[in-house]
Amino acid sequence: MKNNLTTELMGLFLSHATGSASSRKERRTTRAEYHRIMARAGDIGKGNCLLSAYNLGAWFIAMNRTNHRTPEENCAAMESGLRGSRLFRIVMGDADHYLDPKRIQKQKKWAESTHRRQYPSDWVVDLIPGNGCFDLGYDYLECGICKMCQAEGCPELASYLCRLDFLFAEIMGLHLDRTTTLAEGGSHCDFRFRRK
Length: 196
Prior knowledge:
By secondary structure, the protein is an alpha+beta fold. It has helices at about 5-15, 25-40, 50-65, 70-85, 85-90, 95-100, 100-115, 145-150, 160-170; strands spanning about 125-130, 135-140, 175, 190-195. A four-stranded antiparallel sheet has the order 1-2-4-3.
């Protein structure tokens, strides 16, 4: 995947967000490794709604290669940095935005398009309409982050990134139920979101 403006901006943002856990030199080294990972990463399509998650995955892999902390410590640093970022909260939006019917229609079309498997490194997703028990669901049948971690020789790191999904839901004012993930050997990831 080509490094582009989005890749650069995400790298700068993630460097800043996780900066308190590392030195300036570590951040430069991590940023350089992040760019190498993104250059090797398979294309997931222009305008993919999970591009920021893909960048986040590359940053997490880079952190684990360039500092002397454990994946657990790096995950905690990333979670703390994102939780404390006002910009991240603004970009994530809230439950009303996430559950807006117009947005859900776009997500449905995107989910359907993933089944064409035009981009082998992309996610493959089914959107599950709300049913009274939850407001919106997704079944992820393939995961771009799992594929990236596998290609980079560190499949064990994907499960740490799965934890951040609960933080993302919390920031948006949503509750996430999930019983299984691909990263932990499940047949799919079953995301079920409901308003808090």
